[in-house]
Design brief:
With 347 residues, this protein is an alpha/beta fold. Helix content is 41%, strand content 18%. Helix 1 runs parallel beside helix 2.
C-alpha cells in the first residue's frame, strides 16, 4: 500500500508543507516571510508569528496541489531540530495536534539530515555511500551517507557557516539581508581572480570562515589598496563606498570564488580520504550558481559523480522533510506526543 506523508518545515523564516507518496514529492509549497527584510536579518519573534499565520493555509495549499485529503495521510512529519525555537515550536505543535486528531504516527526530522536527503528526491539519485557538502546559513558540513538513516558528519565549520560568510560579506558591502543571493547575482558580471582573499589553514576536513570575514573587512576599510591583514583606516567612508560601488561585481566574484575554493578543497580531501566519488551538495548555499558550476567542473576534473538538488529543494523546504520522513516511516521510527522541538541537536 502506498505511504502518504504530510511534512511541515518551520525551522527559520520559511513556512512550508509538502506531500510525499512512496518517495515521490507531490507538492512542496513554501511561504517566504518578507517581514524580516527591513531588519537586516531574521527576527525570531516575528518569524514565529508569521509561521502561526501561515501554517494552516500553507498546509491547505500543499494538500490541494497534491490532490490529497487529510484522511489519506498515513503520517505527519515535522522539523524537530535544529532552528529557532519559537519557529520550531509552531511547526511541532501543529504536527502533534494533527497527528493526535487524525490518530496517525508522528515523525520528527533533523533539518540538516533532511538537507542531505534532498538529493534523493529526484533523478539522478546518488548511490550509497556518498558524500554531501551541506552548506546553509547555520551549518557547513561534509556528511558521509551510508544509507538514508546512517549519516555521519566527517567535517564541520569551527566558526561561521558558509551562508554566514556570504551574508556577512554582503553586509560589509552594504547589501541587504540575505546577501548570499545578491553576491551570487553581482558575481556573475565580475572577475573572480581580481582580488585574492586568503585561504584559512585548517587541519583535517573542518572549515573556518571567520578569518575571511575579517580579511574582507580590512580590505574594504583600506579601499582595496592595502594588506588585507592590517586594520588601518586608510580611506574615508566616502572613498570606501566609491570603491565598493565601482568594483562591486569583481569584489563579489572574488569573495564567492574564495568561499567556493575553501569548500571544494575540503570536499576533494574528503574524496581522497574516503575513496568515495559520489559527491552531492545541499542546503541554502547550494543554490549558489558559482558553487553549482564549480562542483561540476571539479567533478569532471577529479572524476567525481556530482549531484545537485533542484533549486526548490536547496533552500528550506518541506519536501526534504517529507523524503526523510518516508525513509524513517519504513523503519517505523515514530515519535510519541511527548517529543519536543530543540534549537540545537547533534545527530
Ligand atoms: O538552508 P537555508 O535556506 O537556511 C538555513 O537552514 O540556514 O540557507 C540559508 C542561507 C543564507 O545564508 C543565504 O544567504 C544562503 O543560504 N543562500 C545563498 C544563495 N541562496 C541562499 N548563498 C549564496 N548564493 C545563493 N544563491
Ligand atoms: Zn536549512
Amino acid at each position: 500500500m502506498a505511504i502518504t506523508i504530510l511534512a511541515i518545515e518551520s525551522s527559520c523564516d520559511e513556512t512550508s508543507a509538502a506531500i510525499c507518496r512512496d518517495g515521490a514529492i507531490l507538492s512542496n509549497f513554501i511561504a517566504n516571510q518578507k517581514v524580516h527584510e527591513a531588519y537586516g536579518g531574521v527576527v525570531p519573534e516575528l518569524a514565529s508569528r508569521a509561521h502561526m499565520q501561515n501554517i494552516v493555509p500553507v498546509t491547505d495549499v500543499a494538500l490541494k496541489q497534491a490532490g490529497v485529503t487529510l484522511s489519506e495521510v498515513d503520517a505527519i512529519a515535522f522539523t524537530q531540530a535544529p532552528g529557532l525555537i519559537g519557529s520550531l515550536l509552531v511547526g511541532s505543535q501543529f504536527a502533534k495536534s494533527l497527528a493526535l486528531s487524525l490518530n496517525k504516527p508522528l515523525i520528527g526530522v533533523h533539518h540538516m539530515q533532511a538537507h542531505v536527503l534532498a538529493n534523493l528526491i529526484e533523478e539522478p539519485r546518488p548511490p550509497f555511500p556518498f558524500l554531501c557538502l551541506t552548506v546553509s546559513g547555520g551549518h557547513t558540513q561534509i556528511v558521509r551517507c551510508d544509507s538514508p538513516t546512517q549519516l555521519s558528519i566527517i567535517g564541520a565549520t569551527i566558526d561561521d557557516a558558509a551562508g554566514e560568510a556570504f551574508d556577512k560579506s554582503a553586509k560589509l558591502l552594504g547589501l541587504p539581508y540575505p546577501g548570499g543571493p545578491l553576491i551570487d547575482k553581482y558575481a556573475k558580471e565580475g572577475n573572480p581572480t581580481r582580488f585574492a582573499f586568503p585561504e584559512p589553514q585548517i587541519q583535517g576536513l573542518d572549515f573556518s570562515f571567520s578569518g575571511l570575514k575579517t580579511a574582507i573587512l580590512y580590505f574594504l576599510q583600506n579601499g582595496g589598496k592595502a594588506n588585507y591583514h592590517k586594520e588601518e583606516l586608510l580611506v574615508s567612508e566616502d572613498e570606501r563606498k566609491r570603491f565598493i560601488e565601482e568594483n562591486l561585481a569583481d569584489i563579489c566574484a572574488s569573495i564567492q570564488n574564495r568561499i567556493i575554493t575553501i569548500l571544494l578543497n575540503k570536499v576533494r580531501k574528503a574524496t581522497k580520504e574516503t575513496g568515495i566519488k559520489h559527491v552531492c551538495i545541499a542546503g541554502g548555499v547550494s543554490a549558489n550558481s558559482g558553487l553549482r558550476a564549480a562542483l561540476q567542473e571539479w567533478g569532471a576534473k577529479y572524476g567525481w559523480n556530482t549531484y545537485i538538488p533542484a533549486f526548490q529543494y536547496c533552500t528550506d523546504n518541506a519536501g526534504m522533510i517529507a523524503i526523510t520522513a518516508f525513509y524513517k516511516y519504513k523503519e517505523s521510527a515514530f515519535e510519541d506526543l511527548s517529543v519536543t522541538a530543540a534549537a540545537r541537536s547533534e545527530w
